[in-house]
Fold:
Amino acid sequence: MTAETLHNIKLLAPEVCLTFFLCFLFVVDGLFPKTRTNKFSMITTVVACIAGILLTCKVGKTPEAYFGGLVVNDGFTKFFRYFFFFTAAVSSYVAFGSKEIETRSRMEFSLLLLCTTIGMSIMAAASNLLVLYMGIEMVSIISFVMAGFKRDNLKSNEASFKYLVFGGVASGFMIYGFSLMYGLTGSLNYPQMAAYLTAAQGNFGLVFWLALVLIYGGLAYKISAFPMHFWAPDVYEGAPTPIATFFSVGPKAAGFAALLRMLLTVFAVKTAEGNWQMINGISLTHVIAVISALTMVVGNLSAIGQTNVKRILAYSSIAHVGYMLMGLVTLDRSGLTAILFYLIAYCAMNLGAFWVVGVVANLRGREDLDAFRGLGWSMPVLGICMGIFIFSLTGIPMFSGFIGKFLIFGSIIKSGGYLWLVLLGVMNSVVSLYYYIKILKSMWLDRPESPESLKLSTYHAVGLVGLAIPTVVLGLYFTPILEFAERTLSNLL
Structure:
């Protein structure tokens, strides 16, 4: 093995670490079948994610491309490695006490979760269209299985089938778009593609724009942006709540990572001021603004009439994608930094909100608004934490969600254009308060039909409080996270 190969493997150490734990669980499952019925696999998954985070801190201090330029290790990759490993660890912790994750299937859940996390990490690091496609398919195919985890449940089967159909269509769009881009530029590597587009000076032709539309169709499916968002509510409702919790944050962030890297390294160039501008002849800002507006409007308006809380949060997650896409309109450092900050804030508050839904589903066997009646009084920790998550999702001041929206809206106002988009974003935030407040009303103002003695388990309480604290703290003191996000962008290779 050459020194270069060893160096490449070292840079890939976090993914290699997760692969090692994945193989370890396969062996343990084969030799000791009893581990399928205990929490060993879930604890191992958390340990694997913590090990991945520690290795991410150690490797690749200097941004560089490796494995022949197919993947990149830079600040952007490290940011999303931290994000994905944390999300996977929390999702595994959420599943500890879930009745929806069948006892005999805990091992399978952990194996699928680790596989998906490795795929998401590859998506963030990819600097080649083929590697990106491999990462996306690794995440997508395993997600189809995870959505149908409750094999005897018709809704879960429906969720898996719909996810498969939408995923297959989106995958076909995307790979055809990649092939057109390869035929046009003669390369699959991002830098060579960017060099060709720069030299073309706007003479791209119809094939280029068709390729862009098809590629967007594939990536829009991953982030559930308009018009590829229809799968999300049915999949979130049918999948077990711990898996829906993971879907709402992990794969969505992976799609954003792939979209941001491709946009900033293939279709845009960095200016002397540290911002980005589209390559001559490529004007996408108007299109991004329209897609952002349609995504948040469709998400928020569709959530108004829902009574199932998982469907409410699913449509809400679509709307939040619309808010994050607003940060791409100006392509300046402040807007892109705001997107990364918003992802961190969204991670904590959305994981927490879905976690509460999972606790309620365990207690009462359903996730509609009536299942939440009176839980604020019988389990005040649960009710207070849900209030914090909902206020943050709405964008109420003093919570992290407000800071995220403030930074994104502020970046657009600072640029002096697209003020209509800011106004629309504010109006949508007001609309979202209506359907969010229905959950709190049911928890705190409605009394249960019959008195019952309920108690929130200690590990659920610790986890929910652990997510509620940063949701509040980041709404009051957010400078270190903003500086971290700025360093991430400055180290984008």
User: Anything to note?
Assistant: The mean pLDDT is 89.
